[in-house]
TrEMBL record, chains A, B:
Protein name in the entry: TetR/AcrR family transcriptional regulator
Highest taxon above the source species: Bacteria
Lineage: Bacteria, Bacillati, Actinomycetota, Actinomycetes, Streptosporangiales
Pfam name, any one: TetR_N
Domain HTH tetR-type: 22-82
Gene Ontology molecular function: any one: transcription cis-regulatory region binding
Gene3D superfamilies tied to this protein: Tetracycline Repressor, domain 2
Keyword presence, DNA-binding: yes
Length: 199, 199
DNA sequence: ATAAAACCGGACCGATGGTCCGTATGATGG
DNA sequence: CCATCATACGGACCATCGGTCCGGTTTTAT
C-alpha cells in the first residue's frame, strides 16, 4: 500500500517523523493481523489490538483515524502486490492480454487473496459498512474490473456488473463457497460467472 | 410474513395470547418502519424503537429476540406478497413461464421492493451481518433464483450465481445505482446481468 | 373473586468505538 | 552533550448499543 494515501506513513521514516511512531504503527498492524488470524474478525476490538500491540488505545486512533482506517490500510498492504502485477505487462494479468484473459486472471488472484485473508476481508467489510464504495482498494479493483468489462462488452452497464462481480468476494460468500470445495471451487465458480458475463 | 416462523405471532390473536402482546408487537413493527423511513437505517437503535412504540425495551426483545429478529420479520412482512406471487401461476413470475422470463420478472419485483424499502434493506443487512445466509427471506429468494438458473443453465454453479445475482440488491449498491437513474436504471442493469448469465 | 400465567417496563450490564489531555520522548540546533 | 519544543504516548473517560433480569402489573381462566 505504500503511497496509496499520500501521507508520510509508509513504513519508512521521513524527516521529523519520530521513530516510536513508525515502530508503533508497524506493531499495531502486525498485532491486528495476528488477532485476526487467531480469533476471527468479530473478536478483534481496538482495545485488544492496542493491548496486543503494547500500545495505548489513543495511539491506534491517532495512527489510523478509526477502525475503518485500520482495516483499510491493512487490506491495502495485502493487496499491494496484486495492484502492481495488474499494471506490469507480460502476464495475463497485465496490459496487453485480451480483456477476458485479464479478468479471469484477476479474479483468480482475488480468490487467492480472499482465501489467504478471509478474516481480514470480513473485518474490512464490517468496518467499511458505511460507504464501502469509498475504500481505496475496492475502488481500484472496481475501476480495473469495470474497464475490462466495458472493453469486452460495450453494451453492458460495466460499473454495475463490476460491483456485482466483486460481490463474489464478499467474505461470507467466499467462506460459504470455500467450505465446500476450497479455493478451487471459488475460482471455478467465479470464472463461470466471468465467462457468462463476457461471452 | 404470516406463518413463516410457525409461532403464534402473526398479527392475529390466538388462544391464550394476550391482547396487549399482539398490540405491542404491531406497535413495534410500525414504529420501526417509521423510524427507518424518517432517520435512516443507521439511526434506528432498539432504545429508540421501544420509545417510539411506547413500550419498554424488554418488550422488543421478548417479541423479536434480537435486533436481527426484528428486521428479519419486518422484511418478511414486506416480502410476503412477492413470495405468494412467485407461487401463483398465471403471471411471468409464477410457474409455467420460461425460466428466463420468470427470473427477469422476479428481479424486477425485487428492484421495486428494494426501492420502496431501501432503509429496511440496509438495516436488515447490517443486522444479519453474521450468517446472512440463514435469513428465511433471503433463503427463499436464493432457492428460487438458484432453481431458475439451474433450469436455464445446467452447467453453471447455480447456487453461487444466485448469491452473486442477489448481491445486486445490496442496499448500498442499489442506492448507489439508483442515485443516478432511479429504479429504472437498477432494473435495466440487473436485467442485463440476468440476460448475460442465462443466455 | 381469585389464583395463576403471561407480560410489562426500565434499570442495569458489559463491550465497543472514539475523545481528551497531562505527561513522556525523541528530534534538532547550538 | 544539552536545552528546547514539537510530537507522540497512554489510558482514563464518555456515550451508545445490544441484550438481560426481575419486581410489579394485567389478563385470562376457573
Amino acid at each position: 500500500m505504500a503511497g496509496y494515501y499520500g501521507d508520510r506513513w509508509s513504513g519508512c521514516k521521513g524527516v521529523g517523523v519520530r521513530a516510536d511512531a513508525v515502530r508503533n504503527r508497524e506493531a499495531i498492524l502486525r498485532a491486528t493481523e495476528e488477532l485476526l488470524e487467531a480469533h476471527g474478525a468479530e473478536h478483534v476490538s481496538l482495545d485488544r489490538v492496542a493491548a496486543a500491540a503494547g500500545v495505548g488505545k489513543g495511539t491506534v486512533f491517532r495512527r489510523f483515524g478509526s477502525r475503518t482506517g485500520l482495516f483499510q490500510e491493512l487490506l491495502a498492504e495485502r493487496a499491494a502486490a496484486l495492484g502492481k502485477a495488474v499494471q506490469a505487462a507480460g502476464s495475463p494479468l497485465g496490459p496487453g492480454a485480451p480483456p477476458l484473459d485479464r479478468l479471469l486472471a484477476f479474479v483468480d488472484e482475488l480468490a487467492e487473496l480472499a482465501e489467504r485473508n478471509l478474516a481480514l476481508f470480513a473485518a474490512h467489510e464490517r468496518a467499511c459498512a458505511e460507504d464501502k464504495y469509498r475504500d481505496p482498494t475496492y475502488l481500484r479493483w472496481h475501476a480495473h474490473v469495470s474497464a475490462l468489462i466495458a472493453e469486452a462488452r460495450p453494451g453492458m452497464d460495466a460499473g454495475f456488473a463490476a460491483h456485482a462481480l466483486l460481490g463474489s468476494f464478499d467474505a461470507d460468500l467466499a467462506r460459504h463457497v470455500m467450505a465446500d470445495g476450497g479455493v478451487a471451487r471459488l475460482k471455478s465458480s467465479v470464472r463461470g460467472l466471468v465467462r457468462a458475463l463476457l461471452t
